[in-house]
TrEMBL record:
Signal peptide: 1-17
Annotated keywords: Signal
Biological processes per GO annotation: lipid metabolic process
Name of this protein: Altered inheritance of mitochondria protein 6
């Protein structure tokens, strides 16, 4: 595989140590979290709906955060807690065994896609994370300090930026729009950075060229923010183009295919890069 030197240089700027793969909408799989963890893919996504019309007491609020792609598909046995949070806590605390550990050294990025109204859904999501929070397992921003935890929670979809910013300590972060990092501010007197937005994304259809994609990746990295393009074609050549540009999280549904593609890319481009560095 021949890649231009420029691409190799860009690849060097990829800032994650784990496989640069994000498992998109993995609740559609029979065993959602596990398909990713079995392949050491450390970024997963859950779509959540808050059904406020039901009368449940606060103690079981987490069970109302139902995981589904559209509200018509809601299966009330599938909750954010049962599919994700309980398993994640168990893997961290050693009561559930996992092929891939989740730890500060090998953290999991959990994207929570707010499908229902943002401000209404924020507090139930915040509450559902309480066990992980109480265990000290969440990446947290407090007193101007960002502390890496075993799990970094990033809100996407309808996640309300104002609630994210207002939280102190902050442990739900915000998936920003990669196109607007230079042209907008997250709030008065604030700048974009990983303490608000460790991840910036955009729909692939609104990016016009590979060159623009590479520029967006560089822009995000200027802010210390990692990148993700979604709704991309599911092909090895597309994935390779993102990795060559240093894009951090390749968004994919076919995890085995993307994982195999990364293995090949990493074993060809990685050594080529080291050889280049050795030549000085
Ligand atoms: C994950 O791996 C475990 C053990 O390695 C296996 O029992 C389980 O079936 C796998 N699950 C999936 C969804 O691949
Ligand atoms: C460990 O995780 C399990 C599974 O989520 C949970 O039931 C248990 O309460 C946890 N224990 C501690 C000490 O966090």
């Amino acid at each position: 595989m021949l890649l231009p030197l420029l691409s190799l240089a860009a690849f060097a700027s990829t800032s994650i140590a784990v496989k640069p793969i994000h498992s998109h909408n993995d609740y559609t799989r029979a065993v959602p979290l596990w398909t990713a963890l079995n392949l050491s893919i450390m970024s997963v996504e859950a779509d959540v709906w808050w059904q406020s019309s039901q009368l449940f007491v606060r103690a079981v609020l987490a069970f109302l955060l139902l995981v589904a792609h559209t509200s018509g598909e809601i299966d009330k046995t599938k909750t954010l807690n049962s599919l994700y949070l309980a398993n994640i806590l168990g893997i961290i605390n050693g009561t559930i065994s996992s092929p891939t550990p989740i730890s500060v050294a090998n953290p999991l990025q959990l994207l929570i896609d707010f499908k229902s109204d943002g401000p209404t859904t924020y507090q139930p999501v915040h509450d559902a994370l309480q066990a992980l929070r109480a265990g000290g397992h969440l990446t947290t921003y407090s007193n101007s300090k960002l502390t890496q935890g075993a799990v970094t929670v990033v809100g996407t979809g309808n996640t309300p930026l104002a609630s994210v910013i207002a939280a102190d300590p902050r442990d739900i972060f915000f998936d920003s729009d990669i196109r607007h990092l230079y042209s907008t501010k997250p709030g008065v007197g604030l700048e974009w950075g990983p303490e608000i937005s460790p991840l910036a994304s955009v729909d692939w259809s609104s990016v016009s060229s590979t060159a623009q994609m590479q520029e967006l990746v560089r822009n995000a990295h200027d802010f210390g923010i990692r990148t993700r393009f979604w709704d991309t074609p599911s092909s090895v050549s597309t994935w390779n183009t993102f990795w060559a540009a240093g894009s951090d999280w390749v968004n994919a549904d076919d995890l085995l295919a993307v994982s195999n593609a990364w293995g090949i890319f990493d074993s060809t481009v990685g050594p080529a890069l080291k050889a280049l560095e050795a030549e000085g």
